[in-house]
Amino acid sequence: FPIHIPPLRERRDDIPLLIRHAVLRYAHKLGKRITAISKDAIDALTAYDWPGNVRELQNAIERGVILSAGSSLEPGNWVPKTTAASAPSPATTLAEVERRHVVSVLELTGWRVSGEQGAARVLGLKATTLEARMKKLGIVRPAH
C-alpha cells in the first residue's frame, strides 16, 4: 500500500521532536554529552524547508553534534541556509550528492579517515570502504 508522508516543510511541528531524537542518537553514537539544544538552533532548523526531508535533517544534526564543543547544541555554519542558492540542483546525480556529503564529513573531521574521530566512523563505514569510495568518487585531500 502506498503511504503518503507530507514533506517536513508541511510538518514543521514535527521538526523539534526529530531534532531531539537525532541529537540523542548522534551524541550517543559519537560519544558526546549534549544535554541541551538552544532555542536558536531549533528555530533555525525549523525555518529551513528541508528539500531532502528527514535524511537531510539527520545529516545536518550529525554535523552539528560533531562540531559541538560543549554540552549544548548551538547554531553554527552546520545549519543549512534558507537561500535558493544552497538548494541542490534537481539534475544532481546520486554520485555528486554522495561526493558532497563525504567531502563535507571529511572537512568536519579535518580529513581524518579512520579512528575514533574519523570520517569513516561518522559515516558508519569501515575505513577501507571509505577509502575505496573516495577513490571511486575522485576525492583527494586538498594540499594546504
Percentage of β-strand residues? under 5%
> Would you identify the regions where 5 or more consecutive residues have pLDDT less than 50?
none
Walk across the major sheet and give the strand order.
1-2
What is the average of the pLDDT values? 87
Q: Helices and strands: which structural class?
A: mainly alpha
Given the structure, what is the number of helices?
6
Strand/helix succession: HEHHEHHH
Number of β-strand runs: 2
Head-to-tail CA distance between termini = 53 Å
Helix content: 40-55%
Q: What profile does the largest beta sheet have?
A: 2 strands, parallel
Shape: globular
Task: Write up what this structure looks like.
The protein is mostly helical. Helix content is 49%, strand content 3%. It is built from six helices and two strands, in the order H-E-H-H-E-H-H-H. The chain has helices at 15-30, 39-47, 53-67, 94-108, 119-123, 127-137, and strands at 36-37, 72-73. It has a two-stranded parallel sheet with strand order 1-2. Helix 1 packs across helix 3. The longest helix is centred in the first third of the chain and has 16 residues, at 15-30. The radius of gyration is 16 Å and the shape is globular. The mean pLDDT is 87.
